[in-house]
């Protein structure tokens, strides 16, 4: 078996006495696009900064391309492309000057790929960074990290604030980059549609802990939806549904999201609704949102207690 490109073991990071990353055991396999999801403050950027050697763990270990992340050699760093949150570029430089600066730090540089990505984003080499739109700055940042042809690409919220056309360009560039199966991508994002388009695997961080780590297919297969028609709901019957993720009130009943649906689950749903439940299509985004809402305590369980009390 090929070693994972990124591996952490019991990784923890505190800021003061606040645990931000907690006992993280993760493995990022080679040749795949892994999306890291989580609500604001879940610890995604902190984890990435530890992986990139910019922050030391409080406890535990992080290994990237076979080396300890906090003591990475320049040669290993040269195999990694890292796009920071916010696309920082020196505003007074031209795109061409940014490229010269970046190129000096890497052994290889694919100038035709660099120009191709600029073209995709409608950027000219002679433009000054300060004159570029946010989407164009993202395009330059992406071109700068991809031109050295990194084995591992780490992107922290690359589509933040981009319009749909720039987002599409970014997604297309990523898919193309990862298409030969030789490159590994770790992508932190909030954009679930983008994840569905580009990712092979999904990880979900909740309060610094890794709660989901699976393939996109297994995630999709593991979450099912049901529409239940009912004028009143017994909260005890609801709570007894195995694997219930979320229950959201709709005009004439509930939408339920459940994990790992079995015959037992279906029977419990039917008991709740007196046999008037129907499966509904759930998108990947629906599944993730239901999961995150529950973890944040915003799930409609609260509303359901109220529904029960109103009977
Ligand atoms: N240098 C620091 N000092 C103190 N607290 C910090 C520091 N860096 C991050 N934090 C805190 O750690 C928590 C997690 O931040 P982090 O940036 O890792 O989250 P995130 O999942 O990337 O969030 P977002 O989706 O908003 O980018 C936040 O509460 C943040 O305020």
From TrEMBL:
Residues passing through the membrane, by range: none
Superkingdom, natural source: Bacteria
Record Pfam families: ABC_tran (PF00005)
GO MF term set: ATP binding; ATP hydrolysis activity
ABC transporter domain ranges (all copies): 6-232
Sorted UniProt keywords: ATP-binding, Nucleotide-binding, Transport
SMART domains named among the record's database cross-references: AAA
Key word ATP-binding present: yes
UniProt-listed InterPro entries: AAA+_ATPase (IPR003593), ABC_transporter-like_ATP-bd (IPR003439), P-loop_NTPase (IPR027417)
Family membership noted in the UniProt record: Belongs to the ABC transporter superfamily.
Protein name: Putative ABC transporter ATP-binding protein YbhF
Gene source species: Rubripirellula reticaptiva
Highest classification ranks of the organism: Bacteria, Pseudomonadati, Planctomycetota, Planctomycetia, Pirellulales
Gene that produces this protein: ybhF_6
């Amino acid at each position: 078996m090929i070693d994972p490109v990124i591996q952490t073991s019991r990784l923890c990071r505190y800021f003061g006495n606040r645990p931000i990353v907690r006992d993280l055991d993760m493995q990022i396999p080679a040749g795949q696009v892994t999306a890291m999801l989580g609500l604001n403050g879940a610890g995604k950027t902190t984890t990435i900064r530890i992986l990139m050697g910019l922050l030391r763990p409080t406890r535990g270990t992080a290994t990237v391309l076979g080396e300890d992340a906090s003591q990475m050699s320049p040669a290993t760093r040269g195999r990694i492309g890292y796009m920071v949150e916010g696309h920082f570029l020196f505003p007074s430089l031209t795109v061409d000057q940014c490229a010269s600066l970046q190129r000096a730090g890497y052994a290889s540089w694919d100038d035709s790929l660099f120009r191709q990505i600029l073209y995709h984003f409608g950027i000219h080499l002679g433009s000054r960074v300060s004159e570029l739109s946010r989407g164009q700055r993202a395009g330059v940042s992406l071109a700068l990290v991809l031109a050295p042809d990194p084995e591992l690409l780490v992107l922290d919220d690359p589509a933040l604030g981009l319009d749909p056309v720039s987002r599409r360009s970014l997604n297309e560039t990523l898919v193309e980059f990862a298409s030969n199966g030789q490159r590994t991508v770790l992508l932190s994002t909030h954009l679930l549609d983008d994840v569905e388009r580009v990712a092979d695997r999904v990880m979900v961080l909740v309060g610094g802990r890794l709660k989901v780590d699976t393939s996109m297919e297994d995630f999709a297969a593991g979450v099912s939806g049901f529409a239940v028609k009912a004028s009143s709901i017994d909260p005890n019957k609801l709570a007894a549904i195995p694997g219930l993720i979320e229950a959201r009130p709709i005009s004439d009943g509930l939408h339920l999201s459940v994990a790992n649906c079995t015959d037992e689950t279906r029977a419990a749903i039917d008991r709740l609704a007196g046999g008037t439940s129907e499966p509904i299509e759930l998108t990947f985004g629906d599944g993730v949102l239901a999961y995150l809402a529950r973890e944040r305590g915003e799930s409609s369980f609260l509303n359901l207690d109220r529904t029960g009390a109103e009977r």
